[in-house]
Amino acid sequence: MVLPVSTQTPGADSTHPDARRAVNDVVIRLAGNSQDGIQTIGGFLARLAGRSDQDVMTYMTIPSTISGGPSIFQVRMGSGEILSSGDQADFLVAFYQHSYESHIESLRPGGVLVYDSDHVVPNPDDRRFSAVGIPITGATVEAVGGTSKDKGKNLFVLGLIARIINLDVAKIAGLISERFGGKSEDIVRNAMLAFDAGYGTPADNIRDCLCRFDGAQARPTGKPRVSMDGNLALTYGLIAAGVRHGAGYPITPWSSVMETLRTELTKYGGTFVQAEDELAAAGYALGFAYSGHLAVTGSSGPGLSLKMEALGWAVMAEMPLIVINVQRGGPSTGMPTNVEQSDLMQAIYGSHGDAPRVVLAPKNVEDCFYVALEAGRIAREYSTPVLILTDQALATRIEAFEEPDLASLLVDPKPDLAPRGEDFQPYPLDRITRHAPPGALIATGKYPSVSGLEHDEMGHPTGSPAMHSKMTAKRREKIKALGLKLPAPEVHGDGEGDALVVGWGSTWGPIKEAVNQLRADGLKIGQIHLQNLHPLPQGLETIFARYRNVLVVEMNDSGLYGYGQLAMLLRARYALPSIGSITKTDGLTFRIDEIVAGVAGVTRRVDLNGAHP
Amino acid sequence: MSSSAPALAEPPSKAPLTRKLLVADHPTWCPGCGDFAVLAAYYRVLERLQYTHQNIVTIAGIGCSSRFPYFVNSHGVHYIHGRSLPFAAGVSLGRDDVHVFVFGGDGDGFSIGGNHLVHTGRKNVRMTYVIMDNSVYGLTKKQTSPTSPIGFKTKTDPTGAIDQPINPMRTLVNSGASFVARSHAGQVNHMVEMMERAARHDGFSVVEILSECVEFYEGAFDAAVPRKGGQFKVIEERRNDGTSEDAGRHDPSDEVAAYRLASEPWPGVFGVFYETKRPTKNRLEADLVAKAREKTKGASDLELLRSSFRRLR
C-alpha cells in the first residue's frame, strides 16, 4: 500500500537550526473532535511512557457539550523530569481544518505538523513548520474496511506517532489488547489493523530528517511505575486512607472521583451514595462520619457552595470528614471544563460564623494520592473536616509515578466502637474531641448529643456567653495546634536572593520549570509550594525574609486590591510589603513563559526602582 | 473484610430499658405543647422494643420539635434545618446494627427538606421518621408553614395564607415511603401503636402526628379531638377474615386506596394509610457488596488496592 504522503519542509530561509535535533523530551498535541478518541490514544502514550520508566504529563481540553466539539490532548514524555505539559508542541496532529487553524500557533517553529489531508488544507505560505499530509481518514477506512467508517483514526495516528518517534510497538500492542480485549476479538483486530496501517505509513523521513526522539534513554528505577490522572490518584488515596463510605452529586470535573468510588468501594464492603443534591451528599457523608466511618464528600466550585451550611455544622459538631473540591473556572457555572484556583477563600472561610477547618492542596498527580492519606490522618487525629483543593487540570492530566508502598500506607477503616469510660465527654475543653459513634457504650449511661447548637462539654445546648467563647477557642486552638506541627516547606533553587516564588496546587511543575529557567538566566530565585494552606506551616516568615520579593503565582483574579487569594492571605498573615502577586484568569494552566515573564518583570522593576535594596 | 459493623442480634440487656433511663434534659417546649405527648410515646415505644441502649440513635433537624434529641438519653444528633433525612440515611447505611429514629416538624420535613423526603422515600432507606405537624412555624414565632390552611393568619400572611397547603399523606405515599401513617398527639395509645409498627417496619417508615402549637395555632386540630366536639376517625384495616364487611375495610397495600383516604375532607382519618414490602436501599447496597465480594473472591483490602495499581502499570 502506497500512501500519498506530501511533505513540505521549512523554507530555505528557516532559521531553526535545532529542527533536526535529537530530543529526549517530546511534546505531541493531538487536535480533533471529542468523539475521535484522541483521549484514548493520549492515554496510551501516557501509559506507555510510564511503563518505559519515562516521565510523562498530559493536558487535555474537552468541550462542555454532550457530544462533539473541538478537543485536544497533549502529551509530553521524556527521560528528564517532566514538570509541565509543555508550552509549545513538537508535533501537532490536526484532524480537521478547525483543528489546524486553532492550534497551529501552539507548534514551535521548526516543529512538525501532521495533518489529515482528507480534511485539512494547510496554508502553503506558512514555512515555519514541516508539514506532512497523510490521508488519515481514507487510509483508516481502507485498513479496517467494512462498515466502520473512519472509526479507528485515533489508532492509525497512534501507529504513525509510534513510527515517527520510535515507540515500543510490542508494549503498545499490549496496551491495546488490555484496553479493548474485554470487548471482543473483532475490536482488538480492527484496532491493530488501524494501528499497523499507521505504523506502516512511510513517514520515516520525518523521524530521520526532522526530529529524532530518543525514547531509549529512560532512567530505570527498578520500581514499578503507574500512570493515571489526578482524580484516580486521589480516589485510590482515599481508599488507602481508610475511606469506605461517601456521597456526592454529579458535577464536572469531580464526577469521575464519585464514579470510581461507587464501583470500587463495594469491593471493600463500603458504599458510595449518589445523593439527590449537594446538600444531601454532605448530609449522607456526615451521617457516615457520625456512624464511625472516615467518610468523603466532594464536588466542584458551585457544589461546594451548596455544602457550606453542612460544613459549618461539621466544624461545630467536630466531625472528621474529607471534602474534595475539584476546582474549575467560576463563579457560577463559569467555565466548567477549564481550570482555576479561585475557591481558596471559599475553602478556608466559606460557610458562616467562625468555622476553622483544614485545607490542603496536592501539587501533582502523585501528590493527590498522598494528600488524600494526609487528609484522612488529620481528619481523624483532630476530629475536623479537611478540604482538599485540586483542580480541573490536575484532575484530568495523566502522570506516571512510582507505585506507592501500599502495604505500609493502608489504613484500617474499622469504626472505633469501644466502650467509653466514666470520664467521657463529647466536647471536653481541655482535650481534642474524640467522637463516640452509636454502638459505643457509655459507661456513665449518659449518651452524648452531637450538636450544631453551641454546646457544653456534654453536647447539651448552652446560651452561655462564656461557654461560646471557650468552645470557639477550643475549635480554633486544635487547628492552630496542627499548624505548630507542620514543618517549613522545602525551598527549591536559591535559598535567598531576588525572588521567592510561592505557589499552591497544580501549578507546582510549571513554576519549578520557570524557576529553573530564570536561574539559568542568572537570577537568584527560590520556590516554595504550600500543601498546607490552612493552617499554614511554620517558618514561612523566616524564608520570606531572605528574598527581596515574594511572588505568589496562582490561577485566580487579582481582585479589588491587586492580589490573588493566597497572596492576600499571606499579606494579611505576615504583613510583608514584599509579598506580590502573579495571577491569570484565562482558564488555562500557566505556561512557563508566563511565569518567567511575570517574575522577571517584577524583579527588573524592583531593580530599576530600587524599591527594595 | 467489610468495614461496616456486622448486623448484631439483639443481646439480652442486663437491665430492661425503661423510661427512667431514657429521660434526659427537661423539654424546652411551651406548657401544653403537643410534642410532650409525642416524646412520652417515644419513650413508651422504646420500652416496648427493648433495643440495646447504645444502638439507638435519635436524630433531628431544626425547629421546635427538632429539639427532641436533647430530651432523650440516647446517642443523639441535632443536625441542620431540613437535612436530617440524608444524615440519618448515612447513619442507617453506615451501620446495620443501629436503630435510626428521626424527629422533625412540618417546615423541616415538607418545606426546606421536601426534596430529601421524596428521595429518602424513593430510596426506601431503613429508618423511622416522625413528623410533628403543627401547621405553623413556632420556633420563629408564627410564620406560614407548608401545611398551614388557606386563610390562616400569620406574620408572613397577615391577611391569611393564600398558598395551597401540602397534603402530607399524598406526598408521602407518592414519595415511595414504604410505611405511611397518621396520628394525633392527643391520642397517646394510637401514637404508640403507629410508632411501634413504623419502627418494626423494614424500610422508610413515616408517621405524621398532628401536634398542636398552643402558642401560635391553638385549636388547630380540634376537629379531630372528640372532647372538643371533633371526631377521631381511625382507619379500619383489612383483616382478610373472609367476612363480607372486610371488603369495605382499607387495604394498606393498595396505593390508590391510600390516595383516596388521603383526600378525605379535614380533619381526615388516622392510622396506616400505606404499607408495602419493597427492598430497602440497605438491602440493595448489601447485595451490591456481596456480588462485588464474590467477584473478587473476598480479596483483602491490600490485595484489592494492589491489583488496581497493577492494572495501571
Characterise this structure:
The complex is a heterodimer of chains A (613) and B (313). By secondary structure, chain A is an alpha/beta fold. Chain A has three domains: 6-222, Pyruvate-ferredoxin Oxidoreductase, domain 3, CATH 3.40.920; 227-409, Rossmann fold (3-Layer(aba) Sandwich), CATH 3.40.50; 492-609, Rossmann fold (3-Layer(aba) Sandwich). Helix content of chain A is 37%, strand content 21%. Chain A contains 21 helices and 24 strands. In chain A, α1 runs parallel beside α4 and α1 crosses α5. By secondary structure, chain B is an alpha/beta fold. In chain B, α5 (114-123) packs across α6 (168-175). Chain B is globular, with a radius of gyration of 21 Å. Chains A and B meet through α1, β10, α8, α9 and α10 of A and β2, α3, α5, α9 and α10 of B.
Task: Summarize the topology.
The complex is a heterodimer of chains A (613) and B (313).
Chain A lengths: L5 E3 L13 E2 L1 E9 L4 H14 L3 E7 L8 E9 L10 E6 L2 H7 L3 E10 L13 E5 L1 H9 L8 H12 L4 H12 L4 H16 L3 H7 L1 E2 L11 E5 H11 L4 E4 L6 H13 L3 E4 L3 H13 L4 E5 L1 H6 L1 H10 L3 E7 L16 H6 L8 E3 L4 H18 L2 E7 H5 L1 E5 L3 H4 L39 E3 L13 H20 L7 E2 L3 E8 L3 H13 L4 E6 L1 E3 L5 H5 L2 E8 L10 H10 L4 E5 L8 H18 L4
Parallel strand pairs in A: 2-9, 3-6, 6-7, 7-8, 11-12, 11-13, 13-14, 14-16, 15-16, 20-21, 20-23, 23-24
Antiparallel strand pairs in A: 1-8, 3-5, 4-5, 10-17, 15-22, 19-21
Chain B lengths: L18 H4 L12 H15 L6 E5 L14 E4 L5 H11 L4 E7 H7 L1 H10 L3 E7 L2 E2 L5 E2 L23 H8 L3 E6 L3 H13 L3 E7 L44 H8 L8 E5 L5 H15 L5 H11 L2
Parallel strand pairs in B: 1-2, 1-3, 3-4, 4-8, 7-8
Antiparallel strand pairs in B: 5-6, 7-9
Helix pairs in contact in B: 2-7, 4-5, 5-6, 6-8
